[in-house]
Amino acid sequence: MNQPPDPVPDMVDRYLRGELPADELAAFERVLREDAAARVCFRRAARLDANLRFLSEPQDQPGFVWRDEGGGAVKEAVSLRQTVSRLFPLRWLLPLAACFALIALGAWTWLSWCPVAGLSGVHGVVTVLRDGQVIPGADALALRAGDVVRTG
Amino acid sequence: MPMLPQETERPRTDYEQFVSLLTRHEPALRRFVRTLLPAWADVDEVMQRTALAAWRKFDRFEAGTDFIKWALVIARFEALAFRRAMGRDRLVLSDGLLELMAQEAAEETDAAAIEERALESCLQKLRPERRTLVLHAYAQGADQRDVAAAFGKSPAALYMLLCRLRRELAMCIERTLKQETAS
What we know:
Chain A has 152 residues and is an alpha+beta fold. Chain A has five helices and seven strands. In chain A, the strands form three sheets. Chain A has a three-stranded antiparallel sheet with strand order 5-4-7, with no helix packed on it. A two-stranded antiparallel sheet of chain A has the order 1-2.
């Protein structure tokens, strides 16, 4: 003769999903109170549930976020899991390369377009050539990289 | 910038030591609280309260003693207080049974850590799509209907499949632990 299926694992599952109806809760509680093996089954299921949730979390998420209930202030997260640094030991490389690229671009732009010197009171004596063309009047007072200054 | 409660009155080393201990033992604390409360939202809330209470009492923690045992006492108190504050509108076990469960769970923290490692190995034994499905379904805030749709299943089929996979994983963990004990 077949044994009836053990109802405890099913009740445990439904309790942990929040799906055990009120009329079954009393029976579930009685089983747990009287049967140490049922309690072991319950705790194992709860731990499996917690472990699955833990392993499914992105490992760079903080485990806690501080909250000061008195002042309502929020503190930054305090736990960053060590797996992040194990998985991405060179995670700083990309931002660093981007910084270098930005600095290089800025320097090139500055050298190309920024006035490098000013001339005053020497019109008629000095000629400024830019790309082979003579720069007239006030424009010639703002020299740029690559400009040629002829005197005399 | 907002400050930790009383942070300015405590040495920085206290703060760093506390954060380090709490981070290391967070999974064990979470497993413990999970055995006492059936809803994940409640577990998250009690974990927050536990972390704050532990920080406020950290000056009474003796360095070199067992942090997890100390923190479990706080978590147990916070979980029971939370359960009482919630009243009878939630379907949870009685105080007396929760006290008993908390006492027994606190004695199993070592076994629980071994189970976590065994689970990692058991997950690797699942087919990749099954493993992905389980981890998606358990992710914080995951809507089971969305997960079911993403994997081309009905919510009922997903529920049944997850039940089966949980039981497979539970049996695999038990086998792994027996093998480890035997060797």
